[in-house]
Amino acid sequence: MSKICLITGASSGLGRATALHYASKGWQVYAIARSSDKLAELANENTNIKPISLDLTDSVAVASWFAAWPAEQKIDVAILNAGNCEYVEATALDLAAFERTFALNVQAVVACTRYLLPHLHTGSRPTLAIVSSMAHFFPFTRSQAYGASKAATSYFTDTMRVDLSDTDINICLIEPGFIDTPLTQKNDFDMPFLMAPADAAKRIYDGIANTKSRLRFPRRLSFSLKLLGLLPYNLRNKLAIKMKVQ
Ligand SMILES: NC(=O)c1ccc[n+]([C@@H]2O[C@H](COP(=O)([O-])OP(=O)(O)OC[C@H]3O[C@@H](n4cnc5c(N)ncnc54)[C@H](OP(=O)(O)O)[C@@H]3O)[C@@H](O)[C@H]2O)c1
């Protein structure tokens, strides 16, 4: 029987590429997003993909969708990938942008985790993977909402790993650098070491197959950001100010 993988945010970008990668390896993929037209196109590309149209910020809808999931059908890999990025102005913080960002990047991740956990294929070393970002490693200009949401997501993931350490569930924190997707195509600044979504999807597939607890790619970017993190606080702050888009 095929293994089952559930991926959120599968209609576009990284989630789409990851769904196609798992499907190409013979997995049965449950692909979740809101856009039913894009999901239908995705399912046309590979019949192993089942499109699920669901707004993950609607926690009642999420709860009822998982409640209808057949108890005997266990999930081998769940990848909570759906996320959004909105830049904000420090002098007029857009509260609605914060709400939208936290609703999807944090609350929806918590809700999905809450409701999918009983459906994971325990006894067969299942993986719950959560897609955060390297964005929270450094105070990037105008990234207050996105960076703070991803810091919360990474913290949530790490603490879930601690509290589920007496189970056989592998909790995998994924912190990518820049990937060429609709989310980054609106950026008007240089994105070092930009990766193709298919390359990132392969890293995710291989990392999860090797039961990694954390994936950061590309390494050159995580290494550079780690080095910046070692700088004295005031110097790091000055550098971040220099990076501001004028
Ligand atoms: N691209 C990068 O450089 C980069 C770097 C680091 C981390 N990441 C993270 O990687 C993840 C994927 O990003 P991406 O670049 O692939 O972005 P993307 O192309 O914009 O895809 C975002 C996905 O999330 C789905 N989504 C948005 N709102 C939703 C909702 N309310 N309910 C259900 N699904 C929803 C979108 O589908 P619908 O609109 O159809 O719902 C889409 O499938 C995000 O968590 C992002 O923060 C990306």
Q: Low-confidence spans: pLDDT under 50, at least 5 residues?
A: none
CATH superfamily: NAD(P)-binding Rossmann-like Domain
Number of helices: 9
User: What is the name of the CATH architecture?
Assistant: 3-Layer(aba) Sandwich
By DSSP, the count of extended strands is 7
Give the overall average pLDDT. 97
Strand order of the largest sheet: 3-2-1-4-5-6-7
Summed up, what is this model?
By secondary structure, this protein is of the alpha/beta class. The chain has 9 helices and 7 strands; from the N terminus they run E-H-E-H-E-H-E-H-E-H-E-H-H-E-H-H.
What does this structure look like?
- The structure is a single chain.
- The protein is of the alpha/beta class and 246 residues long.
- It has one domain (4-242): Rossmann fold (3-Layer(aba) Sandwich).
- The chain is built from nine helices and seven strands.
- It has a seven-stranded parallel β-sheet with strand order 3-2-1-4-5-6-7, with helices on both faces.
- β1 (4-8), α1 and β2 form a beta-alpha-beta unit.
- The longest helix is centred in the middle third of the chain and has 22 residues, at 95-116.
- The radius of gyration is 18 Å and the shape is globular.
- NADP nicotinamide-adenine-dinucleotide phosphate binds next to α1 and α6.
